[in-house]
Amino acid sequence: MKGDPPGRERAALDETIHHPTRLAVVAFLSACDEAEFATVRDGCQVSDSVLSKTASALEAAGYLDVRKGHVGKRPRTWLSLTPAGRQALARHITALQDIVATARSAATGAGAAVPGHAEGAEPAVRAAPSPE
User: Fold this and answer.
1) Residue 28 structural domain
2) Which three-class secondary structure string do you get for the chain?
3) For the chain, how many structural domains are there in total?
4) Fewer C-beta within 10 Å: the chain N or C terminus?
5) Could you tell me the CATH number of the domain that includes residue 53?
C-alpha cells in the first residue's frame, strides 16, 4: 500500500498458498463448502499423489479439513477449506493485487523525468503492447 516500505506486498504473500498447485486447490475449494477428492483432483488437473501431498501440506498449515467416509462400500475423501484457509486466501489475493498495483504505479511514474537520464535517450519504461 502507499507509504509502506518496498517489498511489503511480497512479504504479505502466504508461502504455503503461493505454490501453484496449492493455490489452485485453495482457489477451487473457495468456491464450495466441500468437494470430493476426485472432483478436486480433476478440477485442478493433478494426480492423486500430487493432490494427496498438497492436501497434507494445507491440512498441516490449518487451511484444509480432510474428512473420510464411505459411499456405500467405497471409501471417499472430502476436502474443505477451514475459516483460516479462506482468510489466508483472501490475504494472499490482496497481496497479489497490491503487487500488481504497485508495479503499475511504478511503471506509470517511471515515464516521468528520471534523474540522470539523458534527454532524448531511450525511455526507462515503455508502454506494454496492446493485446491483439
Assistant:
1) 8-103
2) CCCCCCCHHHHCCCHHHHCHHHHHHHHHHHCCCCEEHHHHHHHHCCCHHHHHHHHHHHHHCCCEEEEEEEECCEEEEEEEECHHHHHHHHHHHHHHHHHHHHHHHHHHHCCCCCCCCCCCCCCCCCCCCCCC
3) 1
4) C
5) 1.10.10.10
